[in-house]
Amino acid sequence: MSDASSLVERIRQQRSIKVPVGRWMFHARRPTDIEAGELYRERATSGAMAIRFVSGWEGLRMLDLVGGEDETPVEFDRAVWEEWVVDQPDVYKAIGDKIMEAYLEHADRQKTDRKN
């Protein structure tokens, strides 16, 4: 990995968050400042933020996604995520709230850093 690639990865890692919802864990990232402005202008909902910023999960099983008794773990897939989460208001609300909270914490840190 080049020095630049390594640095890019470190910057992205700083935006990473984990959001526990029930027995599941969702991997997401907080928006950049530019993305936050876009979200504000679009009046983005919690669901829209969850769809856009989640990049992985832990603990979801086939039965969580489609019912039944199949406890097989399911690997994250963006299309499956987008189709499933739109009918899970408790999930997308919790994730959207955490994404916004992470962004606001970031913005507060930046304000503090500029003052110093």
Tell the overall outline: globular
Q: Biggest sheet: strands, sense, closure?
A: 3 strands, antiparallel
Q: Please report the number of helical segments.
A: 6
What strand order characterises the main sheet? 1-2-3
Using only C-alpha atoms, the radius of gyration works out to 16 Å
Counting structural domains, the number is 1
Distance between the termini: 34 Å
Number of extended strands: 3
The average pLDDT score comes to 94
Question: Strand portion, in percent?
Answer: 5-15%
> What is the helix content?
55-70%
Which structural class do the helices and strands define? alpha+beta
Poorly predicted runs of 5 or more residues: none
Helix-strand pattern: HEEHHEHHH
What is the fold's blueprint, element by element?
Elements: H1 3-14, E1 16-21, E2 24-29, H2 33-42, H3 46-53, E3 54-58, H4 62-66, H5 78-85, H6 89-115
Antiparallel strand pairs: 1-2, 2-3
Helix pairs in contact: 3-6
Give your account of this protein's structure:
- It is a single chain.
- 60% of the residues lie in helices and 15% in strands.
- It has one domain (14-115).
- Helix 3 (46-53) packs across helix 6.
- The longest helix is centred in the last third of the chain and has 27 residues, at 89-115.
- The chain has a three-stranded antiparallel β-sheet.
- The radius of gyration is 16 Å and the shape is globular.
- It is an alpha+beta fold and 116 residues long.
- The termini are far apart.
